[in-house]
């Protein structure tokens, strides 16, 4: 139910606020490592949350669903000493029906376990944060809430669109529904029987408004059954790769599209991982103000508010699956940067293999409906990489509508939608060797370094800093476009802890670059791309 809202505004009860963690006060949804959690005490591998609440008045045909935004890494949920669920992951939302264990006065208990077990996805979290590894989060780090629903309710919807068609698949208990679109110049109402509906908007005579980064038009709709009513939205857009003038090129709605992207780590200062609608909106507006049209969400799955903001404000998203497995600086970073880019990626740990595949499939299901999400990164720089070819085939077979970067940076195997390169410390002209070419990481320059600032080259004054960025564009990015380059991802949007190579400081507000110059450089890339495609 990631971008589905039930229309009865009285059906949500927010459980955020004061909880007990091993008998001490904590403010949810902040992780205990966050200052905003106000938690004082040692953080152990296993700790227990307790929250008391009064049950809402339920009608005879209503149920009560308990939702968790995210709990890292393992959660066992009890209500009134009745065991209800065991959940493993760390980044994804989950829910459960608690109706049968409900009383007037209730004690919710969540036993959490987080040992930074690398069999599970863990992203950039580290017990010893420094450089490109950051403060970890433990246990509950997103909102917790209750939702009243009818006995027969719409549990989820899956949306698939083209530039003219809409398909909705419903997971629910009814078989008779009504779809209603009523906004602007679009007025449509259709009753149907079954668990899906397929509409050709053009054939129905409805106005066609395509979604893109300049005009992110969303069609808002209601879906009604006998027992329930929800609202959601869809967009008409197509992002694909096409062979044009000897190279594989990106097209958005049939038009040449160059990705000017930023690496987005999703760390929010004192909040660490936890963020809210206004935080996401600020980041998107900041990125777009500099001429960027894409965010690569790096090794973290965000709250639904992030993806909804990207849909609404118009910025594309490349979503990384979250890495598991060990990391070795020499093997995974130092040697590949000087040319040693081969690796045996056979399965070594079956448990981690199974967890990672489930995680990837769940991420696909979670983000399927968001028009802003165009691509997924399966493995980044070989971190935890195994059987990349087989996983590409698996994930692609489940979802052919998105682009898959099987091995971002290096340790390439045989199949992927992208030829994905990471280039730091130098500028060189890149050339496509068959697949669509993306410079999926570059830059990372530090401006005004402090002690122990981490980055990929530094400058003490703004002029020198901007000269380095200008050289990156003029000596690598722009010249590579004629040889098949479709876009780049600059490292990075915001500073994170000791990694000080952001375009904005850690407050996500203070800019560190010449905005006008950077916007002109991005415009130059786009103009060059359009010229090359149209030759």
Q: What is the SS-derived class?
A: alpha+beta
Task: Supply the CATH class of the largest domain.
Answer: Alpha Beta
Biggest sheet character: 8 strands, parallel
Percent of residues in helices: 10-25%
Question: How many separate domains?
Answer: 3
Overall shape: it is: globular
Within the largest sheet, what's the order of strands?
28-27-26-25-24-33-30-29
Outline the low-pLDDT stretches: none
Rg, Å, rounded: 24 Å
- Any idea of the CATH topology of the largest domain? TIM Barrel
Number of helices: 7
Report how far the terminal alpha carbons are from each other.
Answer: 45 Å
| CATH superfamily grouping of the largest domain | Glycosidases
Average predicted confidence as pLDDT = 95
Quick one: how many beta strands? 33
CATH architecture call of the largest domain: Alpha-Beta Barrel
Strand content of the residues, in percent?
A: 25-35%
List keywords for this structure.
535 residues, alpha+beta, Jelly Rolls, Immunoglobulin-like, TIM Barrel, eight-stranded parallel beta sheet, six-stranded antiparallel beta sheet, 7 helices, 19% helix, globular
Walk me through what this model shows.
The strands form eight sheets. An eight-stranded parallel beta sheet has the order 28-27-26-25-24-33-30-29. Strands 4-3-5-11-8-9 form a six-stranded antiparallel beta sheet, with no helix packed on it. It is about 20% helix and about 35% strand. Helix 1 packs parallel to helix 2 (about 305-315) and helix 6 runs parallel beside helix 7 (about 515-535). The mean pLDDT is about 95. About 40% of the residues are buried. The protein folds into three domains: about 5-150, Jelly Rolls; about 155-235, Immunoglobulin-like; about 240-535, Glycosidases (TIM Barrel, Alpha-Beta Barrel), CATH 3.20.20.80. It is of the alpha+beta class. The two termini are about 45 Å apart. The chain contains seven helices and 33 strands. It has helices spanning about 275-290, 305-315, 330-335, 350-365, 390-400, 460-480, 515-535; strands at about 5, 10-15, 15-20, 25-30, 45-55, 60-70, 70, 75-80, 80-90, 95, 105-115, 140, 145-150, 155-160, 165-170, 175-185, 185-195, 195-200, 220-225, 230-235, 240-245, 245-250, 255, 260-265, 295, 315-320, 375-380, 405-410, 420-425, 435-445, 445, 460, 485-490. The protein is globular. Strand 21 (about 240-245) and strand 22 (about 245-250) form a beta hairpin.
